[in-house]
Write a structure and sequence with these properties.
Layout: E1 5-8, H1 10-26, H2 31-46, E2 52-53, E3 63-67, E4 72-78, E5 82-90
Parallel strand pairs: 1-5
Antiparallel strand pairs: 2-3, 3-4, 4-5
């Protein structure tokens, strides 16, 4: 099976950038965020159906995968060629992000 291309929307890039900056400033084990994100992206590239459906969103077929060590979800869509990461959102917020189609 050929891995799908994984790309980020501008919104998701900004979410990840801010979270990484926060993690570097406030945590002692700074490598955990990058390592868990990288692992999740590898999984999504090969098994994008591994995440759970998130039907509350206005985006058709939006899914999310939980990053346990950092306590957040990656919200994404996919087709046979690519995975599009649309948001990174804290799991403890109680509701998901506003994701644009």
């Amino acid at each position: 099976m050929t891995p799908r291309l994984v790309r980020f929307t501008t919104t998701a890039q900004e979410h990840v950038r801010r979270e990484k900056a926060w993690w570097l400033e406030n945590r002692t084990h700074v490598d955990i965020f990058a390592a868990e994100l990288e692992q999740a992206l590898k999984v999504l590239a090969v098994l994008p159906g591994a995440g759970t459906s998130y039907p509350q969103a206005s985006v058709v077929d939006l899914r999310r995968i939980y990053l346990r060590k950092v306590g957040c979800h990656l919200y994404y869509t996919f087709d046979e060629h690519e995975v599009i990461v649309r948001a990174r959102w804290g799991a403890r917020r109680g509701k998901g992000p506003l994701v644009e189609p």
